[in-house]
Amino acid sequence: QVQLVESGGGLVQAGGSLRLACVVSASFITISTMAWYRQAPGKQRDLVARQSSGGSTDYADSVKGRFTLSRDNVKNTVYLQMNSLKPEDTAVYYCNVIGASDSRFPTVRRSYWGQGTQVTVSS
Q: Among 12, 82, 83, 103, which one is least packed by beta carbons within 10 Å?
């Protein structure tokens, strides 16, 4: 069973930094994408950063130059380094992995989500 567990959220002042971590509990046969999303109160869940299987990473315009997605394959962990935080970055942040994890169906990809971690940036 695949589980994604996020950590690292919290309260920080504007201009500060946080590093989110997402530990993936199972081994994937193939991973298509690993990503971070966020959802502010009353708003839809939006993509923050996404890394493809080829290693290229895309960022939302609002976080370019401030956020960095990275991964540690040994630790099965995806990180989101967030610098120069702004009050508008306040949201619940979710980790997402799309991949195949069932050896019985190696070509079937599913989307997996973590439970989310709250990030609050005060002005």
A: 103
Alpha carbon distance 8, 64 (integer Å): 20
Location of structure tokens 């991964």: 71
* Residues in the chain, overall count: 123
Tell me the CA distances in angstroms from 78 to 12, 15, 35, one per residue in order: 21, 23, 8
- The number of beta carbons lying within 10 Å of the beta carbon of residue 21 is 17
**Residues above pLDDT 90, as percent of the chain:** 81
Structure tokens at 74: 């040994």
pLDDT, tens digit (0-9, with 9 covering 90-100), for 83-118: 999 999 999 999 999 999 888 999 999 999 999 999
